[in-house]
Fold:
Amino acid sequence: MAGKRASRISFEHILPNILNLLIVQGTIQFSLGILAEAGLSYVGLGAQPPTPSWGRMLADSQTLTTIAPHLALFPGMVIVLTVLGLNLLGDGLRDWLDPRLRRER
Structure:
């Protein structure tokens, strides 16, 4: 380690050990951002029409739930599948990039 700059030590030793944590944290935060935007749009504080928003679609379909329940089902399922997919992607990337698992291969 003698003679190496702090930035090189960080990139060679610290970054590989925290990269998996950063990726998982990033995907979870992105999922939370999607949920926050959908929630704010549902109560009318998010994107305003004509900008499309899954939360706004849910709010607009609430009055028609007894007549056409699919209008609420599709945006709700898209939110669930997107958030679940991002969380599973982050978990898979964490497993793939984990230095402890890389040594065992």
